[in-house]
Amino acid sequence: MKALMWKELRENRMKMIIGCVLLSVIGVAVSIAYRFLEGGIPGMGQILPEYVDLIKKLLPDFSNVNAYLYSQWFSKNLQQVGAILAVVLLSGAVAGERELHTAIFLFSRPVSRGMVLASKVIVLAGALVLAVLVSTAGAVLGAVVVGKVPQPGFVLIATLHSVIALLTFASLATLLSVLVPDRMKAMLFSGAIIIVLSVAGQFKPLRWLNPLELFGSPILIQRPVPQLVPIVVGVVLSACMLWISYRMLQRQEF
Amino acid sequence: MNAIEMIGVSKSYGQVRALQDMCLSVPAGSIFGLMGPNGAGKTTSIKLMLGLMEPTAGSLTVLGSIPSGDGMVLRRRIGFVPEDFSLYPNMTGLEILEFNARLYGCSVDENVRRLQTVFELPLARKIATYSKGMRKLLGLYIALSTEPELLILDEPTEGLDPMVRSHFLGVLADETARRNLTVFFSSHILSEVEKICDTVAFMRFGRTVLQDSVESIKERYRVYTVRFGAGHSPRDVKNIVIQRERALGQDAWDIEALADQEQARTAFADAGGTVLNVQSLPFDEIFLRFVEA
After folding, report:
1. CATH for the stretch B2-205
2. Which of the following CATH numbers is that of domain B216-291: 1.10.10, 3.30.70, 2.60.40, 3.40.190?
3. Chain B residues with CB within 8 Å of chain A CB
4. 3-class DSSP state of B115
5. What interface predicted TM-score (ipTM) does this complex get?
6. Which of A65, B91, B219, B248 could form a disulfide with B95 if both were Cys (CB 3.0 to 4.6 A apart)?
């Protein structure tokens, strides 16, 4: 298992480093941008008073740093870039081995398919979680630099929700990686499923389909307590998709 | 004792039957060549032996174990070089050897260092920079580095130039002799099979059509020119299987058969025929007779 995990780390290290650095830079930048947005948008005074009120209503409430971090980091940049990173990392897990014709080498060694899949998921999902933690730490650090300290409880709970949501996306990408023998196709299918469900979930009757709900709701700003439903749904969905991936991989012939 | 035993093994992919009632016995300690045209079922047979697939029907044992049940334990005793051999291009030769050794639960030790003097590969270089021949040699190096009891090679010299092929076969023959390995070798390059294999099997449409030693096949397969008496023809011949017959005139035939000469002569005589001439055939011609039949 250690050897398999070492191989995954070695083979994916560039993707992991680039993803982590990119997400962290965005995290720091988002927080530092707060300095410029706090107290309104420059030039707002030149806008006609009736429009100023309308614009203020449309803009998120940036009077508190928790609300700013929630709207600009957790439910926006981390959600979008994190989802892309989850799909990019995991959709190549098994599909990549097939595409490079290394699957026959790997599966003809004295290792079980379950071990191969587990090592891939542990390393790649671990890298994803690490990227979320490091970049969120960067976002918090950026906020501290501009003189605003977010509430630790809020940061922890919002991070927990983000990790679970992104692991669910990663599990979906793993499943597609087992089902589709081509990295690019697995990536596109995973992305398409997330996008289609997110769009469909914007309509009230289909709200339960929206995978972005897994990231928690704005209630976290006021009340930083874990929201049971998205957490349970995320964990159960991830477990189911990984179990199906394992079963499908067991049945596949290489 | 047989290292590999296949009895009535079948394997289907949906409607396509890749193997049909295949039978094969690979004696332990031998170099065994499985020969057949593309699509005959050679790679499917190998994947079944490694436990990468399950047979649809029949019985298969490898080193006394059933691959579909004990695959993981069994594969620890097997070295395998796949036909479409690809390795992680960003790893160096040494890294892939170390990775493979760890998967087998052994270390890169004396054996690997000794093999390096045989293979002379630039192990510090990334695999992406290796030529096709070097990759195939690295595949054999990896397979031998874990001290297997059985070495399975799926068309290992396919696409190699004659010099690299000769080096590859030389190393294989030397290492096999040194270790008392069983080697299962699939190929459609007849000259190399004839050169290094003790026993061969010919495959056609997912079946074994012949299994015997190379020497025995070359010794026993003959073209007999036979003249039959009035009212007799090759159809009257019993006790030997005629592989091919060609009428030369009204009463003379060229008849090809795999049999002991004495037995063949007796069979022809019993059928009212007289053997006029006996010819041998090159090994590749014999192979074509069986797979084209």
Report:
1. 3.40.50.300
2. 3.30.70
3. 47, 50, 52-53, 72-73, 75-76, 80, 82, 84-91, 95, 99-100, 102-105
4. helix
5. 0.77
6. B91
